[in-house]
Amino acid sequence: MRKVMVVLPAVALSVLGLTSTAQAERAPGCSSTVQIGSTGHVKKGSTIIASVKQFKGCGKNWGYTYVWDSWASKPGNFSSSAEIVVNGTRDLNSTVNGTNDQDVWSKGTKTLDKCTRAYGEVWGDGNVYWAQTDERC
After folding, report:
1. What pTM does this model have?
2. 121 has which bridge partners?
3. Cα–Cα distance, 96 to 9 (Å, whole number)
4. Which helix (H) or strand (E) holds 70?
5. Kindly report the CA angle at 68 between 49 and 120, in degrees rounded to 5?
6. Rounded distance between C-alpha atoms, residue 65 and residue 130, angstroms
7. In what order do the strands lie in the sheet with 89-99?
8. Of 122 and 11, which is predicted with more confidence?
9. Banded pLDDT at 26 (limits 50, 70, 90)
10. 49 burial level (CB within 10 Å; 0-12, 13-18, 19+)
11. Which of 11, 24, 84, 101 has the most crowded Cβ, counting Cβ within 10 A?
């Protein structure tokens, strides 16, 4: 019996609902990161417009915000940010902002021995929408 491999174009996969929402691979300057904790979802009303994740790697914690296609493709500009919250306080030194960037990585923080979470924001219609991950200690 011969096996036949079928390669579906991206359009067909999208129609089938088989596309992922984010392709976070590695933080800038760190070749090996792994997600820790839950994924937070930035919502406008009940619609998810971005995902927020926390990663660890290279001895640091990293925040990551991925703006979904549905928000990124709307008319006009948008901004997004990613940062780390350490022991309940936003670490503004870790904040990275992006304009019309679908994915934004925070600066890495040497806080693997502390309780942290990732925090992300998206704005562009006069409002700020935000989410965070669960806390990891």
Report:
1. 0.82
2. 81, 130
3. 34
4. helix 69-72
5. 60
6. 10
7. 89-99, 79-86, 116-123, 128-132
8. 122
9. confident
10. buried
11. 84
